[in-house]
């Protein structure tokens, strides 16, 4: 079986497993896993969704969607990047370098407007064009110690998300497919760090045909995969799905929160209780809600 067929089979099994969990009445986060756990799992996957959205173009990887630099534009792809490639050659002119490494430091890779605070990015990112002689949307990326640090405006909340691993993007004017195999370390204010081993696929369907070197239009994101969560004595193998696709609104500016509806489920067994953490988006510019739903 080829690698692509193996991945598709894996995702199909993940989706089947999630469906088999069933669905019962929603309970609040405090009625299932502790509030801390529900909130931390929810916030972690909210951040991974947002990072995946930014990863759909090289421009928004270098200048994350929702920062002040991007204000007034459909996405941040038009902004001047904070870091330059080690080798700028782009043989096909599609915006993806043939083979280049970006070394982030903060500053200059410090962004304002991120949930009212700042976002600093440091670490290494290598981008390769899988077809350097033919313009397209694809890339192969390797992340090495790529850390994003959020600091609230009052400096009372500070947390880091460090990613190592790979991303692969492919697609056409009709849509994009982002495959991620990442090892994520997420810190929490006042809580222990979590290690998240994540393998998932993001399928992005635009509302209008995509154009090379242009910002993303509004569209829908479907996410499927698994994540292995470890923190202290916690160890959960989670199935990730979006039973209601996430709707990205490109017209929602001046905010990092540009998903206006949809929900993500992280399903598994939490302290002997089977169910899922639900991340539900309801409005552009508003944070999603995190709740736990039992399926027992």
Architecture blueprint of SSEs:
Blueprint: H1 3-20, H2 35-54, H3 58-62, E1 99-104, E2 110-114, E3 117-128, E4 139-151, E5 158-172, E6 175-188, E7 191-206, E8 219-231, E9 234-248, E10 259-270, E11 273-281, E12 289-294
Antiparallel strand pairs: 1-3, 2-3, 3-4, 4-5, 5-6, 6-7, 7-8, 8-9, 9-10, 10-11, 11-12
What report would you give on this structure?
With 296 residues, the chain is mainly beta. The chain has one domain. The protein has helices at residues 3-20, 35-54, 58-62; strands spanning 99-104, 110-114, 117-128, 139-151, 158-172, 175-188, 191-206, 219-231, 234-248, 259-270, 273-281, 289-294. Strands 1, 2, 3, 4, 5, 6, 7, 8, 9, 10, 11 and 12 form a 12-stranded antiparallel beta sheet that branches. Strand 11 (273-281) and strand 12 (289-294) form a beta hairpin. The longest helix is centred in the first third of the chain and has 20 residues, at 35-54. The two termini are 36 Å apart.
| Count of extended strands | 12
Largest sheet: 12 strands, antiparallel
Q: Kindly, what is the distance between the CA atoms of the first and last residues, rounded to a whole number of angstroms?
A: 36 Å
| Envelope shape | globular
Q: What is the number of helical segments per DSSP (H or I, 4+ residues)?
A: 3
- By secondary-structure content and strand pairing, the structural class works out as mainly beta
Tally of separate domains: 1
Oligomeric state of the chains in view: single chain
For the CA atoms, what is the radius of gyration?
A: 19 Å
Residue-averaged pLDDT, rounded? Answer: 86
The helix content is 10-25%
Q: What percentage of the residues does DSSP assign to strands (E)?
A: over 45%
